[in-house]
From TrEMBL:
Classification lineage: Bacteria, Pseudomonadati, Verrucomicrobiota, Verrucomicrobiia, Verrucomicrobiales
Record keywords: DNA-binding, Transcription, Transcription regulation
Matches recorded under PROSITE patterns: HTH_LUXR_2 (PS50043), RESPONSE_REGULATORY (PS50110)
SUPFAM superfamilies cross-referenced by the UniProt entry: C-terminal effector domain of the bipartite response regulators (SSF46894), CheY-like (SSF52172)
SMART domains named in the record: HTH_LUXR (SM00421)
Protein name in the entry: Two-component system capsular synthesis response regulator RcsB
Domain of life of the source: Bacteria
Domain Response regulatory: 1-116
Amino acid sequence: MLFHPSEFTRSSWKLLLKKILPGCKAIETSSVEEVRHAVESVQVDALMMEFHPRDVEHGIDTLKAVISITGGKRVMLICGPPAPVTTRTAMQAGASVFLGCNESVEELKRALSAALECVPYMSSELASALARSVGPINAPQEEEESSQYALSVREEEVLELLVSGMRPSQVASRLGLSMKTISSHKRNALGKLGVSNILEAVRIWV
Protein backbone atom coordinates (compact mmCIF):
# COMPACT_ATOMS: atom_id res chain seq x y z
CA MET A 1 0.00 0.00 0.00
CA LEU A 2 1.26 3.47 -0.92
CA PHE A 3 0.00 6.10 1.52
CA HIS A 4 -0.59 9.56 0.05
CA PRO A 5 2.41 9.27 -2.31
CA SER A 6 3.95 12.21 -4.10
CA GLU A 7 4.09 11.99 -7.89
CA PHE A 8 7.75 10.95 -7.71
CA THR A 9 7.11 8.30 -5.07
CA ARG A 10 4.10 6.95 -6.93
CA SER A 11 5.91 6.40 -10.22
CA SER A 12 9.23 5.21 -8.81
CA TRP A 13 7.80 2.82 -6.22
CA LYS A 14 5.33 1.21 -8.61
CA LEU A 15 8.13 0.53 -11.09
CA LEU A 16 10.39 -0.85 -8.36
CA LEU A 17 7.68 -3.05 -6.91
CA LYS A 18 7.05 -4.58 -10.32
CA LYS A 19 10.75 -5.46 -10.54
CA ILE A 20 11.14 -6.66 -6.94
CA LEU A 21 7.76 -8.38 -6.49
CA PRO A 22 6.23 -8.99 -9.94
CA GLY A 23 3.07 -10.57 -8.52
CA CYS A 24 2.27 -7.91 -5.94
CA LYS A 25 -0.69 -5.56 -6.15
CA ALA A 26 0.00 -1.93 -5.22
CA ILE A 27 -2.91 0.12 -3.93
CA GLU A 28 -3.01 3.81 -3.00
CA THR A 29 -4.68 5.49 -0.06
CA SER A 30 -4.93 9.20 0.64
CA SER A 31 -6.30 9.32 4.18
CA VAL A 32 -6.13 7.46 7.47
CA GLU A 33 -9.74 6.32 6.99
CA GLU A 34 -8.86 4.83 3.61
CA VAL A 35 -5.98 2.97 5.26
CA ARG A 36 -8.35 1.61 7.90
CA HIS A 37 -10.85 0.51 5.25
CA ALA A 38 -8.14 -1.14 3.13
CA VAL A 39 -6.74 -3.06 6.11
CA GLU A 40 -10.22 -4.30 6.98
CA SER A 41 -10.95 -5.29 3.35
CA VAL A 42 -7.73 -6.85 2.04
CA GLN A 43 -4.46 -8.24 3.34
CA VAL A 44 -1.91 -5.42 3.55
CA ASP A 45 1.62 -6.83 3.72
CA ALA A 46 3.41 -3.47 3.90
CA LEU A 47 2.59 0.24 3.83
CA MET A 48 5.01 2.73 2.29
CA MET A 49 4.85 6.34 3.44
CA GLU A 50 6.94 9.46 3.00
CA PHE A 51 7.50 11.08 6.38
CA HIS A 52 7.95 14.81 6.95
CA PRO A 53 7.23 15.67 10.62
CA ARG A 54 6.01 19.23 9.93
CA ASP A 55 3.76 18.23 7.01
CA VAL A 56 0.04 17.90 7.88
CA GLU A 57 -0.52 15.05 5.42
CA HIS A 58 2.76 13.25 6.15
CA GLY A 59 3.32 14.35 9.75
CA ILE A 60 3.61 12.76 13.15
CA ASP A 61 -0.12 12.52 13.94
CA THR A 62 -0.80 10.80 10.64
CA LEU A 63 2.12 8.43 11.17
CA LYS A 64 0.90 7.47 14.64
CA ALA A 65 -2.59 6.82 13.28
CA VAL A 66 -1.25 4.66 10.45
CA ILE A 67 0.95 2.69 12.85
CA SER A 68 -1.97 2.06 15.21
CA ILE A 69 -3.93 0.56 12.30
CA THR A 70 -1.24 -1.44 10.52
CA GLY A 71 1.44 -2.05 13.14
CA GLY A 72 4.76 -0.20 13.02
CA LYS A 73 6.76 -3.20 11.82
CA ARG A 74 4.87 -3.21 8.51
CA VAL A 75 5.30 0.51 7.85
CA MET A 76 8.16 1.51 5.54
CA LEU A 77 9.10 5.17 5.89
CA ILE A 78 10.93 7.32 3.37
CA CYS A 79 12.34 9.91 5.76
CA GLY A 80 12.67 13.43 4.40
CA PRO A 81 15.33 15.91 5.54
CA PRO A 82 16.72 16.57 8.04
CA ALA A 83 17.23 12.81 8.17
CA PRO A 84 18.46 12.45 11.79
CA VAL A 85 15.59 14.53 13.24
CA THR A 86 12.98 12.88 11.03
CA THR A 87 14.21 9.38 11.79
CA ARG A 88 14.35 9.91 15.55
CA THR A 89 10.82 11.34 15.50
CA ALA A 90 9.57 8.33 13.55
CA MET A 91 11.29 5.95 15.98
CA GLN A 92 9.52 7.60 18.89
CA ALA A 93 6.22 7.15 17.05
CA GLY A 94 6.85 3.40 16.85
CA ALA A 95 7.94 2.81 13.25
CA SER A 96 10.75 0.34 12.61
CA VAL A 97 11.61 0.22 8.87
CA PHE A 98 13.42 3.33 7.61
CA LEU A 99 14.73 4.51 4.25
CA GLY A 100 16.39 7.70 3.08
CA CYS A 101 15.40 9.67 0.01
CA ASN A 102 18.21 8.39 -2.24
CA GLU A 103 18.46 4.64 -1.76
CA SER A 104 19.77 1.94 -4.09
CA VAL A 105 17.49 -0.76 -5.44
CA GLU A 106 19.29 -3.31 -3.27
CA GLU A 107 18.64 -1.22 -0.16
CA LEU A 108 14.97 -0.97 -1.10
CA LYS A 109 14.81 -4.73 -1.51
CA ARG A 110 16.27 -5.29 1.96
CA ALA A 111 13.88 -2.78 3.52
CA LEU A 112 10.86 -4.30 1.81
CA SER A 113 11.93 -7.77 2.90
CA ALA A 114 12.24 -6.53 6.49
CA ALA A 115 8.76 -4.98 6.36
CA LEU A 116 7.25 -8.17 4.98
CA GLU A 117 8.97 -10.21 7.70
CA CYS A 118 8.04 -7.69 10.42
CA VAL A 119 11.63 -7.14 11.53
CA PRO A 120 13.32 -3.76 12.26
CA TYR A 121 15.49 -2.25 9.54
CA MET A 122 17.35 0.98 8.90
CA SER A 123 19.16 1.76 5.66
CA SER A 124 22.88 2.43 5.78
CA GLU A 125 22.23 6.01 4.53
CA LEU A 126 20.06 6.85 7.53
CA ALA A 127 22.26 4.95 9.99
CA SER A 128 25.28 6.92 8.78
CA ALA A 129 23.38 10.22 9.04
CA LEU A 130 22.39 9.39 12.61
CA ALA A 131 25.94 8.42 13.53
CA ARG A 132 27.34 11.65 12.08
CA SER A 133 24.78 13.70 13.99
CA VAL A 134 26.09 12.50 17.33
CA GLY A 135 28.46 15.04 18.83
CA PRO A 136 31.14 14.39 21.46
CA ILE A 137 29.82 13.77 24.96
CA ASN A 138 30.95 16.85 26.87
CA ALA A 139 27.99 18.16 28.85
CA PRO A 140 27.74 16.91 32.46
CA GLN A 141 24.14 15.76 31.98
CA GLU A 142 25.09 13.79 28.89
CA GLU A 143 28.05 12.26 30.71
CA GLU A 144 25.77 11.17 33.52
CA GLU A 145 23.27 9.64 31.10
CA SER A 146 26.03 7.92 29.13
CA SER A 147 27.72 6.49 32.22
CA GLN A 148 24.64 4.53 33.22
CA TYR A 149 25.19 2.23 30.24
CA ALA A 150 28.88 1.75 31.11
CA LEU A 151 30.02 0.70 27.64
CA SER A 152 33.73 0.04 27.26
CA VAL A 153 35.70 2.04 24.69
CA ARG A 154 35.84 -0.96 22.38
CA GLU A 155 32.11 -1.68 22.77
CA GLU A 156 31.33 1.92 21.88
CA GLU A 157 33.66 1.70 18.87
CA VAL A 158 32.02 -1.49 17.61
CA LEU A 159 28.50 -0.17 18.21
CA GLU A 160 29.22 3.13 16.45
CA LEU A 161 30.49 1.33 13.35
CA LEU A 162 27.48 -1.01 13.30
CA VAL A 163 25.09 1.92 13.71
CA SER A 164 26.83 3.69 10.81
CA GLY A 165 25.68 0.86 8.54
CA MET A 166 28.76 -1.37 8.45
CA ARG A 167 28.32 -5.13 8.58
CA PRO A 168 29.96 -7.16 11.36
CA SER A 169 32.49 -8.57 8.89
CA GLN A 170 33.43 -5.04 7.78
CA VAL A 171 33.78 -3.92 11.41
CA ALA A 172 36.04 -6.90 12.10
CA SER A 173 38.21 -5.99 9.12
CA ARG A 174 38.33 -2.29 10.08
CA LEU A 175 39.36 -3.00 13.69
CA GLY A 176 41.57 -5.99 12.96
CA LEU A 177 39.51 -8.27 15.21
CA SER A 178 37.90 -11.65 14.71
CA MET A 179 34.18 -12.04 14.01
CA LYS A 180 33.86 -13.85 17.34
CA THR A 181 35.30 -10.85 19.19
CA ILE A 182 33.03 -8.42 17.30
CA SER A 183 30.01 -10.57 18.12
CA SER A 184 31.04 -10.62 21.77
CA HIS A 185 31.42 -6.82 21.94
CA LYS A 186 28.09 -6.35 20.15
CA ARG A 187 26.31 -8.77 22.48
CA ASN A 188 27.79 -7.11 25.57
CA ALA A 189 26.91 -3.60 24.35
CA LEU A 190 23.32 -4.53 23.51
CA GLY A 191 22.99 -6.28 26.86
CA LYS A 192 24.18 -3.21 28.76
CA LEU A 193 21.74 -1.03 26.84
CA GLY A 194 18.96 -3.49 27.54
CA VAL A 195 18.04 -3.97 23.87
CA SER A 196 18.06 -6.90 21.46
CA ASN A 197 19.17 -5.36 18.14
CA ILE A 198 21.01 -2.44 16.57
CA LEU A 199 17.85 -0.49 15.71
CA GLU A 200 16.74 -0.53 19.34
CA ALA A 201 20.25 0.53 20.34
CA VAL A 202 19.99 3.54 18.02
CA ARG A 203 16.80 4.64 19.81
CA ILE A 204 18.72 4.84 23.11
CA TRP A 205 22.34 5.43 22.23
CA VAL A 206 22.15 7.89 19.32
